[in-house]
Amino acid sequence: MPVSEPRKLTVWFVRHGERTDFVDPNWRYTTTTPYDPPLTELGAKQATKTGYYLRDLAQENFDSFVRPHSKTRYLLYASPFLRCIQTAEGIIRGIGTSRYSEIVGGIRLEPALSEWMSEEYFTEQIPDSLISSCKEACLVNRVPLELAYKPQLNHLPEFPETLDQLAARFRDFLERTVQQLEQDTPENEPFPTVILVTHGAGVNSLLEACFKERTLVEVNYCSLSRAHLNLKKKEEGWLVDKQATTIHLR
To answer: Could you tell me the pTM of the whole model?
Structure first.
């Protein structure tokens, strides 16, 4: 294995799958939590297909002769909104049990990846009870959570949130995640591949953090963006080689 390889980090930015209120606008009148719609049946299929794609990519990268320890280890972080948790669950289902890849620990519930608390989307502060309800639902439905994970944000972002505040939230999360992985990963071991399941505005903010300029791309359901960082050459910044692609959903 090349000496420089373990110091390279790969991060996937994933938007959640199709949401129920997108296809049924009246759904919001049938619930006490209209700000937290679940996935549609199609959205669940999109999430699983995303997992299949990541599984197959890991298989393509596996080389038992040249790199006997080349199994891809995924760290999966998700916004606590139901549509993101269900998407993360679908990704886990798609990756499945494989000799080529694995999810390490379970879903890392991270409020820093939450939806943009914009006045265009919401009329008031979303209660932090959404986070505890999310945890309880995961435990009841046996959705794997990494319970030992300590999130960077212990509450939902404050409403209202400006675009600059949103960008700073995601930039800070990405920087702190890189720092933590540097501390946790021994020099002679490759970094796990990181998957961040978030919202459309979140994906744009993560791309903006990589490009270091205002970014606005069309981010469709379960689209995939991928960024790489050579930690031995941080001054070169992030290399984005996939940007909001949905080719894996065809």
So the answer is: 0.95
